[in-house]
Every structure is written in C-alpha cells, then in structure tokens.
C-alpha cells in the first residue's frame, strides 16, 4: 500500500468511526496523512471510498506507518480507550525516534495520559492527550479539540489541529489547554456536562409527555421552538429530530421502540469519581450518571413496578404555562450543570498545577462538540469579564436568568413530585442552588453530631478556634490546641 518515502505530515492509526473521519478531515484540509488500522480492511475501505478527498498514504503495518511520516513524527492514535491504547502505544514506541510525538485522541482517562506521558518521556518521546468531541459528523466537518501536552509538541501539531477544528466567528475550536493530562481532563468534564445536558433534556421530554400527555412529535415541536431562543444548542436541535423520527419497521415513534436503559462508556463516571476526590459538588452530573445506572437496573425496576405500580396521576396544568415553566427549569438547571463543570475544571487545574484558561475552554466548546450551544458564548464573556470568577451562577446574565426562572423551576420540580415523574437532575440542581444561597445550612447539626459521637471537633460562629464539647461530662466547649 505505502511507499517508504517519508512524505506524510502526520500519521493516524485507528480507522473506526472517529479515526476514519478525522483522517478524512485532515486530508481534506491539505495535509498528507499516513493511515493505518489493525484490521487492514478498514484502511482499504477508507482509500477506496474516500481516497480522492486528499493525499492519503495507506499503510498495512505500524512499521510502514512510521516510515511514511516526516520527522519529527506526529502519530495520532484513535483506538478504543484503555488496554487497546496501551497496546498500540507499546508497539509504536520501539519504532520511533527521539522528539517524535504520539497523540492519543481517544477518550482516555487523564490519569492514564499522565502515566503514558511519563513513560514516553523516558524514551525522549512526547505524549499528547488530545480530547476530541463532535462524534462522527464533528470528526469529519470540524470537532472541538482540547490538547494537553508540551508547548513544543503543540507547536508541531498546531497547523494541523487548528485547520481541522470547527470555526466559530473565525476562531478555531481548538486550544492547547495545558500540559500532559489537561486535555483529557477537560474532555472528561465535557462529557460529564454532556451527561447532565442529555438527562435534563430527557427529564423535560418525560414531563411534557407524562404531565401534558403530548405525543413525541408534539414534544419535538416544543424543542424546536426552544431551539430558537436561549436554549439553542446541538443537543436541543437533535432532540427535536429524534423525537420526530418514526421507526421504519413498526411505524411507531422511534423513541418508543428503543429500550429505556441508558448505557455509558465511562467518561461520566470518571467525572463523578474525580469530583468526589476533589470535593467538588457536581450534583447535576452525578445525578445524570446515576439516572443512567438506575435505568439499567431492569430487574429491580420490574420488581418495584410489580409492587408500586399506580394509575398515572392527572394534574390540572395549563399547557402553555407548563411548557414555559419547563423551559425555564431546563435553562436554570443547565446553568447549574455548566457552573459545576467549570468549577470541576478549576479544581482539577489547581490540584494538578495546570494553568487552564476557563474562558478559552468555553470558547472552544462553542462549536464542534456535542455540548455546543449559544449559551457558551455567555460563559466565555463571563470569564473574560472576571477570570477568577467564584461561580458562574452569580454573574449578571446567569443570575438574572435564574432569578427570573426560579419560581417556574420550583413549580416544575413540585409538579414532577406530585405526578411521580422522576426528575433527579432538575431536583438536585435546584437543591444545589438553594444550598448555595441559603444563609444557614444544617451542616451545623452534622458538625455537632460528629463532635458528639466521635470528638471530631467543630468551629464556632462567635469566635475563632477549633472546639470539642465535653458531652459526657459538663457539656462545656473546650478549645483544642493545634498539634
Ligand atoms: N464514537 C464517538 O462518538 C467518540 C469516540 N471517541 C473516542 O475515540 C476513540 C475511537 O472511537 P471509535 O472510532 O468510536 O472506535 P472504537 O472505540 O469502537 O474503537 C475501534 C478502533 O480501535 C481499534 N482497536 C481496538 N482494540 C485494538 C487493539 N488492541 N490494537 C489495535 N487497535 C485496536 C479497532 O481496530 P480494528 O478495526 O482492528 O478492530 C478500531 O480501529 C475511542 O477512544 C473513543 O472513546 C471520542 C469522541 C467521540
Ligand atoms: O466523547 C464523546 C462525545 O464527546 C462520546 O460520544 C462519548 O463517548 C459518549 O459517551 P457515553 O457512551 O458514555 O454516553
């Protein structure tokens, strides 16, 4: 397939859904690309079907791939995350020369990226963890790209990655977000937000269908209308299309022929696990992840249905009013999910000593990625005005949106509770908002209980210091001395 002449600007191995389209995107943008896949049939198919789209060099082995690329080489690995990526990287390393760059464009866990970066550095190689979002279509037409790696490696990659990324207002949705694991960390949180966004959309759909009795196509009309306003986004637009889709075989609404058990590949779960470690309350993302888990517990669901099934509750709700309330609740909950996601990135950056520019992250998420939305421009503006923002919720634009929508938000959650429609992400987002804005939290009681049963100490509202109450003796507080 290939010649031995090293004429490709870049190489790519892994030509499944994402890799094939990313390779075509690179070729379409005028870069010579060497392509390889473990199973050669995929390479052959790419060349046969799309070989005329640009300058491809087909390779049957990794040796051929390496030989086809100009030095210092840059090789993109776009295979299954985890063991497959390790297998490919391990096979590549002995074939490479000092200063070559291996780019993992899969959905790797950032801790794996840190480990691989250290291992390759010992061989004088650069390892780049590159988050790519946009799915099949985005990979071809312009994804959002989050690069983590050294400045040196980014300089080598920049002409290619910036040329293939989505463009918004002339700005490529691509950035060097930080060193080593920073790119995959940002991509992980992107996917966590994607989980929350999708769950909020799903809860809105469920409410419109269950409380108002709308058919899927009618809910599609509502989403289409919402897409004309503040909620405008790729996922809202796609929801309208999916809800309107009729299954070719059964003639039923497509959404009714799909089994209601949501799967996941793991990025949402990693986001929640990492946030727990860092102590960041990403409650919307966590509830969205658990909602997927719950949906998959089919045996428990069947058992519960057998015991607790009831007739649907009919509520006297005005259609237009409720639709508007759900829109406001969706918007407010979405603001919470994004605020929590950006808090998580800030905490990750601090913990790993990455200088991540949150405004830049919002900028490159405006296009190409699954969570692309008009609303990200507002987040970009908020960070431009105040880079060290304490929380996105209090910036003027979002504060106004929440203040205007909070009554509707409460009404929607209350209606959902009365109707028995589960809305974990709406409810937890509202609880998060109330938790933040409340003057006093019952955490004081938790501290008191902890001190009572375990002498865990507490701080007082009336003076500085750390205290323990002599519960079993005279009930008086005694100040604790620092160790
Ligand atoms: N699908 C999506 O929407 C998105 C996916 N991603 C990430 O991009 C990466 C690629 O995703 P996708 O295109 O969906 O493909 P898959 O995740 O389904 O991976 C299939 C590819 O991995 C290769 N592969 C699997 N195991 C090995 C191995 N042991 N050695 C060598 N190659 C192996 C396959 O080769 P073979 O053909 O020989 O089996 C094939 O090229 C993944 O990390 C994914 O998480 C990122 C963003 C979006
Ligand atoms: O990375 C992506 C988009 O940005 C993928 O679509 C993501 O892998 C989907 O995740 P899951 O299968 O867990 O829903």
From TrEMBL:
<dbReference type="InterPro" id="IPR036291">
    <property type="entry name" value="NAD(P)-bd_dom_sf"/>
</dbReference>
<feature type="active site" description="Proton acceptor">
    <location>
        <position position="187"/>
    </location>
</feature>
<dbReference type="GO" id="GO:0019521">
    <property type="term" value="P:D-gluconate metabolic process"/>
</dbReference>
<dbReference type="Pfam" id="PF03446">
    <property type="entry name" value="NAD_binding_2"/>
</dbReference>
<comment type="pathway">
    <text>Carbohydrate degradation; pentose phosphate pathway; D-ribulose 5-phosphate from D-glucose 6-phosphate (oxidative stage): step 3/3.</text>
</comment>
<dbReference type="Pfam" id="PF00393">
    <property type="entry name" value="6PGD"/>
</dbReference>
<dbReference type="InterPro" id="IPR008927">
    <property type="entry name" value="6-PGluconate_DH-like_C_sf"/>
</dbReference>
<dbReference type="InterPro" id="IPR006114">
    <property type="entry name" value="6PGDH_C"/>
</dbReference>
<dbReference type="GO" id="GO:0050661">
    <property type="term" value="F:NADP binding"/>
</dbReference>
<keyword id="KW-0311">Gluconate utilization</keyword>
<feature type="binding site">
    <location>
        <position position="456"/>
    </location>
    <ligand>
        <name>substrate</name>
    </ligand>
</feature>
<feature type="binding site">
    <location>
        <begin position="14"/>
        <end position="19"/>
    </location>
    <ligand>
        <name>NADP(+)</name>
    </ligand>
</feature>
<feature type="binding site" description="in other chain">
    <location>
        <begin position="190"/>
        <end position="191"/>
    </location>
    <ligand>
        <name>substrate</name>
    </ligand>
</feature>
<keyword id="KW-0570">Pentose shunt</keyword>
<feature type="binding site">
    <location>
        <begin position="37"/>
        <end position="39"/>
    </location>
    <ligand>
        <name>NADP(+)</name>
    </ligand>
</feature>
<feature type="binding site">
    <location>
        <position position="450"/>
    </location>
    <ligand>
        <name>substrate</name>
    </ligand>
</feature>
<dbReference type="InterPro" id="IPR013328">
    <property type="entry name" value="6PGD_dom2"/>
</dbReference>
<comment type="similarity">
    <text>Belongs to the 6-phosphogluconate dehydrogenase family.</text>
</comment>
<keyword id="KW-0560">Oxidoreductase</keyword>
<dbReference type="InterPro" id="IPR006183">
    <property type="entry name" value="Pgluconate_DH"/>
</dbReference>
<feature type="binding site">
    <location>
        <begin position="79"/>
        <end position="81"/>
    </location>
    <ligand>
        <name>NADP(+)</name>
    </ligand>
</feature>
<feature type="binding site" description="in other chain">
    <location>
        <position position="265"/>
    </location>
    <ligand>
        <name>substrate</name>
    </ligand>
</feature>
<dbReference type="InterPro" id="IPR006184">
    <property type="entry name" value="6PGdom_BS"/>
</dbReference>
<dbReference type="GO" id="GO:0006098">
    <property type="term" value="P:pentose-phosphate shunt"/>
</dbReference>
<feature type="binding site" description="in other chain">
    <location>
        <position position="107"/>
    </location>
    <ligand>
        <name>substrate</name>
    </ligand>
</feature>
<protein>
    <recommendedName>
        <fullName>6-phosphogluconate dehydrogenase, decarboxylating</fullName>
        <ecNumber>1.1.1.44</ecNumber>
    </recommendedName>
</protein>
<dbReference type="InterPro" id="IPR006115">
    <property type="entry name" value="6PGDH_NADP-bd"/>
</dbReference>
<feature type="binding site">
    <location>
        <position position="107"/>
    </location>
    <ligand>
        <name>NADP(+)</name>
    </ligand>
</feature>
<feature type="binding site" description="in other chain">
    <location>
        <position position="292"/>
    </location>
    <ligand>
        <name>substrate</name>
    </ligand>
</feature>
<comment type="subunit">
    <text>Homodimer.</text>
</comment>
<dbReference type="GO" id="GO:0004616">
    <property type="term" value="F:phosphogluconate dehydrogenase (decarboxylating) activity"/>
</dbReference>
<keyword id="KW-0521">NADP</keyword>
<feature type="active site" description="Proton donor">
    <location>
        <position position="194"/>
    </location>
</feature>
<comment type="function">
    <text>Catalyzes the oxidative decarboxylation of 6-phosphogluconate to ribulose 5-phosphate and CO(2), with concomitant reduction of NADP to NADPH.</text>
</comment>
<feature type="binding site" description="in other chain">
    <location>
        <begin position="133"/>
        <end position="135"/>
    </location>
    <ligand>
        <name>substrate</name>
    </ligand>
</feature>
<feature type="binding site" description="in other chain">
    <location>
        <position position="195"/>
    </location>
    <ligand>
        <name>substrate</name>
    </ligand>
</feature>
<dbReference type="InterPro" id="IPR006113">
    <property type="entry name" value="6PGDH_Gnd/GntZ"/>
</dbReference>
<feature type="domain" description="6-phosphogluconate dehydrogenase C-terminal">
    <location>
        <begin position="183"/>
        <end position="472"/>
    </location>
</feature>
């Amino acid at each position: 397939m290939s010649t031995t002449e090293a004429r490709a600007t870049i190489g790519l191995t892994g030509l499944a859904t994402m890799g094939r389209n990313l390779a075509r995107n690179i070729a379409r943008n005028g870069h010579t690309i060497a392509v390889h896949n473990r199973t050669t049939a995929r390479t052959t198919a790419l060349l046969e079907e799309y070989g005329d789209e640009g300058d491809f060099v087909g390779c049957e082995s990794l040796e051929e791939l390496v030989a086809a690329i100009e030095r210092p080489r840059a090789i993109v690995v776009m295979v299954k995350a985890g063991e497959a990526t390790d297998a490919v990287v391990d096979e590549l390393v002995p074939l490479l020369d000092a200063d070559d760059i291996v780019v993992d464009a899969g959905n790797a866990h950032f801790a794996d990226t840190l480990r691989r970066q250290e291992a390759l550095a010992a061989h004088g190689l650069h390892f780049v963890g590159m988050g790519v979002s946009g799915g099949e279509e985005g990979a071809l037409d312009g994804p959002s790209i989050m690069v983590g790696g050294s400045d040196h490696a980014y300089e080598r990659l920049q002409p290619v990655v910036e040329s293939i990324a989505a463009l918004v207002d002339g700005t490529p949705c691509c950035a060097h977000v930080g060193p080593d694991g920073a790119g995959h960390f940002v991509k992980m949180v992107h996917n966590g937000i994607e989980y929350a966004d999708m769950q909020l959309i799903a809860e809105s759909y469920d409410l419109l269908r269950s409380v108002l009795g709308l058919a899927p196509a009618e809910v599609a009309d509502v989403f289409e209308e919402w897409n004309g306003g503040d909620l405008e986004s790729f996922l809202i637009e796609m929801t309208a299309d999916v809800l309107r889709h009729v299954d070719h075989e059964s003639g039923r609404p497509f959404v009714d022929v799909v089994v209601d058990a949501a799967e996941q590949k793991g990025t949402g779960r990693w986001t929640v696990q990492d946030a727990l470690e860092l102590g960041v309350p990403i409650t919307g993302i966590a509830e969205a992840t658990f909602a997927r888990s719950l949906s998959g517990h089919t045996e428990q669901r069947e058992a519960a249905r057998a015991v607790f099934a009831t007739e649907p509750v009919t509520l006297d709700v005005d259609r237009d009013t409720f639709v508007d309330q759900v829109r406001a609740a969706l918007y407010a909950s979405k603001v919470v999910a994004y605020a929590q996601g950006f808090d998580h990135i800030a905490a990750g950056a601090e913990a790993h000593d990455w200088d991540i520019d949150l405004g830049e992250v919002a900028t490159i998420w405006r296009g190409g990625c699954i969570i692309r939305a008009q609303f990200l421009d507002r987040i970009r503006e908020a960070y431009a005005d105040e880079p060290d923002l304490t929380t996105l919720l209090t910036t003027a634009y979002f504060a106004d949106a929440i203040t205007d929508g909070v009554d509707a938000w409460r009404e929607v959650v209350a209606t959902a509770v009365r109707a028995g429609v589960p809305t974990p992400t709406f409810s937890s987002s509202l609880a998060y908002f109330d938790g933040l804005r409340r003057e006093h939290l019952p955490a004081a009681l938790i501290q008191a209980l902890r001190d009572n049963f375990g002498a865990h100490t507490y701080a007082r509202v009336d003076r500085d210091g750390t205290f323990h109450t002599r519960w079993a003796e005279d009930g008086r507080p005694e100040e604790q001395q620092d160790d």
